[in-house]
Amino acid sequence: MAAVGYARVSTADQDLALQLDALAAAGCTKVFEDRASGARADRPGLRAALDYLRDGDVLVTWKLDRLGRSLPHLIETVAALERRGVGFRSLTEVIDTTTPGGRLVFHLFAALGQFERDLIRERTRAGLAAAAARGQTGGRRPVVNEEKLRRAREHITRGLTVREAAARLKVGKTALYEALKAGLA
């Protein structure tokens, strides 16, 4: 069993020293690093760490937020590790999925995360239904409004193509075609 560390800072200006010291003190034999935002999906250090891990190893991070882009991503990553027989430890939050208590705490996080996603989904649906009942529709406002459509028709009557009229009005030709076709106002 090997303790494999993963450290990440969001910008090149930030220093990894605190995390690297904590990972060394935790007995990590190998440490992978990234200097990238946690929101980025393409973190080469994390990818290399995940590829390096073997059954029985433990991935160690200084904090939970160093590993996951979001709670759902964190849960997905730790679940994938678990399926491979790899444990996970977060030093700051003192979570260790190699112990029954650590697995319990992590699964409580997962349950709370799922509960939060369900609540957000429920509130979104209720908000959309209420807006629809008031006659409102979602999405972006049309780029081609009444005035632009009127001017486009004038340009086209004078002999311009739809493409040329769209360029003069600074709208996309596809949007203008759609507005003309729909007779939008």
Automatic annotation (TrEMBL):
Residues 2-135 form the Resolvase/invertase-type recombinase catalytic domain. PROSITE patterns: RECOMBINASES_1, RECOMBINASES_2, RECOMBINASES_3. The active site is at residue 10. Keywords: DNA integration, DNA recombination, DNA-binding. InterPro entries: Homeodomain-like_sf, Recombinase_CS, Resolv_N, Resolvase-like_N_sf, SSR_resolvase. Belongs to the site-specific recombinase resolvase family. PANTHER family: DNA-INVERTASE FROM LAMBDOID PROPHAGE, SERINE RECOMBINASE PINE-RELATED. This is Recombinase family protein. It comes from Paracraurococcus lichenis.
